[in-house]
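Hi F.,

I've been meaning to write this up properly since the lab meeting, where we talked about keeping a consistent format for the predictions we share between groups. The idea is simple: the sequence comes first, exactly as it goes in, then the structure tokens exactly as they come out, then a line or two of notes. No screenshots and no reformatting. I'm using this chain as the first example so we have something concrete to point to.
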Amino acid sequence: MSRPLVVTDCDEVLLHMVRHFADWLGREHDIDFALEGNPFAQSMTRRGSDEALDEKEVWALLGSFFDTEMSTQTPIAGAVNAIAELQRDADVVVLTNLADHRYESRRAQLLDLGITAKVYTNQGPKGRALDAIVQEYSPSSALFIDDLAVHHASAAKHSPAIHRLHFCGEPAIAPHIPCALEAGNAHARIDTWDDALHWIQNTLYGENSNGR
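Output, unedited:
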């Protein structure tokens, strides 16, 4: 008999990223990163200048962060325990928007923090990759968690039957990002694992899950 499936993003869902990225930009590159809801590529300015960095440099810096600083990332409060609890009765996999050559680094990073889960890498909107994972597992029910509304819109398009939870565990940016629930592409918006775990369990198993 098939098990339920949870497909979760990593950065800002399982692990803090932007706070560590901002610290690294300031420390190593004299770049300020404003966590105030501006588009990602427009949030960075070189100290002493009001001019935003060009997009090519932004993505190069982001790649350099993931190549050298992943060990600095810390778990979102409650994430490690929540994933372990879900894995009692469900398959949990991570769908992360990193280049394929960073797959092993992400897998090892999560393992070091106590999260043992299959990792899938992806670039761009996640809907097609999500649908492929659901087809691979043929679960009894499935649920997708991500912090970005664009991925929920893609999921709604390519895998409309899946439950979708918009979750952003970074308080500095959570109030500012576009909300997938408000856009009609997510079934809930919850930003803490204490509340999210309860919602996920009830969604996957129903109110009679006995706290599974």
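Notes:
The first strand starts at residue 5 and ends at 8.
The radius of gyration is 17 Å.

If this format works for you, I'll send the rest the same way.

G.
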